[in-house]
Amino acid sequence: MIKPTESEMEILQVLWNKGPCTVREVYETLDKKDVGYTTILKLMQIMLEKRMVSRDTSAKSHLYKATIGKEKIQHEFLDRFIETVYNGNTSRLIMQALGNHKASKEEIELIKQYLDNLQE
Amino acid sequence: MIKPTESEMEILQVLWNKGPCTVREVYETLDKKDVGYTTILKLMQIMLEKRMVSRDTSAKSHLYKATIGKEKIQHEFLDRFIETVYNGNTSRLIMQALGNHKASKEEIELIKQYLDNLQE
DNA sequence: ATTGTTCTACGAATGTTTTCGTATATCTAA
DNA sequence: TTAGATATACGAAAACATTCGTAGAACAAT
After folding, report:
1. Do both B53 and B94 map to the same domain?
2. Where residue A31 sits, what CATH number does that domain have?
3. Residue B118 to residue A110: CA distance in whole angstroms
4. CA torsion sign, A33 to A38 to A42 to A47?
5. What InterPro entries would the database entry show (chains A, B) (predicted)?
6. In whole angstroms, what is the distance from residue B12 CA to residue B31 CA?
7. Is A31 part of any domain?
8. Phi, psi angles (nearest 5°) of residue A88
9. Which of A50, A66, A82 is the last residue of a domain?
10. pLDDT (tens digit per residue) in A64-102
11. Which mean pLDDT values do the consecutive 10-residue runs of chain B (120 residues) have?
12. How many CB atoms lie within 10 A of CB B36?
């Protein structure tokens, strides 16, 4: 199973949000002053080996894009997370998420509607 | 900040659920056939160094207990998780959690009540 | 065409986590 | 009291993950 590391996840987020990017675009978007350009380059090359991304090499600056879907990866991470951190207790995760985070009225309504749908 | 690794988290889960345990109890509870006893022992000794656990050495088999609270650690992990995996979008996490997991009527009711409380 | 900039490739150092083997101590039961 | 089972301690290997330096290709502008 594909399991991106934390750094790989950050890069994937950029690719998911912005679509295909060059290394430099990713580097600048992440804006991590503590890490050099070639570090990001290397990471993305490794991600290519692992087939998490593909690239278009027709131009001098290669264009990378994610080959794995955001939803799929989020789903897998969430399952693992609930297992290891919440011991499988999804309700607790949800309540704690609701608790930590100051939800707006709109968000609460949205989630309620979602729950109503589930109840049918 | 204390940031347990994935393996450390599994051990902490056991200690949180069962209370103070010996290495063997943890080892048997985890029931990972692919990992030896001394591996778990070593991990727990490292956790002791990191002060994630304390131990009572009065008997031959030492009794370990978690020194860090479940809620605190879950909270920290959740924040980081929402950031790296959901890009800060808590509502999406909640909905995906609700979607993946077949919630019982009771759970849904519980969450709804929780939302009602939040709305005041 | 030479110079400076920007790119890729890639080896290798560093750091962290996980794993286990072996030595040694302690207990238990014949 | 000796043999076997069960503990701990701990060094060190193995497996990953992260970081960067340096070499050289491609390009742009003078």
Report:
1. no
2. 1.10.10.10
3. 14
4. positive
5. BlaI_family, WH-like_DNA-bd_sf, WH_DNA-bd_sf
6. 15
7. yes
8. 85, 0
9. A66
10. 999 999 999 999 999 999 999 999 989 899 999 988 776
11. 94 97 97 92 98 96 97 95 92 88 79 84
12. 11
Q: Between chains, do B115 and A111 touch, taking CB under 8 Å as contact? A: yes
* Judgement on whether residues B61 and B114 belong to the same structural domain of the protein: no
The Å distance, CA of A21 to C1' of C2, is 32
Domain that holds residue A24: 6-66
Nearest of B103, B80, B102, B104 to residue B90 by alpha carbon: B80
- Which of A6, A85, A114 is closest, CB to CB, to B98? A114
Q: Which nucleotide is nearest to A43 (CA to C1')?
A: D18
State pTM to two decimals: 0.90
Termini Cα distance of chain A: 34
Dist. CA B45–CA B36, nearest whole Å: 15
Q: In angstroms, how far is C2 C1' from A20 CA?
A: 35
Residue A56 sits at φ, ψ, to 5 deg, of -110, 115
Q: Does a structural domain hold residue A1? A: no
A65, β-bridge pairs: A54
Give the Cα separation of A102 and A45 in Å (integer).
39
Distance between CA atoms of B101 and B13, rounded to whole angstroms? 21
Q: And the tokens for A85?
A: 């951190």
Do residues A19 and A53 both lie within one domain?
Answer: yes
Block residue for tokens 């409380």: B117
The single-letter code of the amino acid at A81 is F
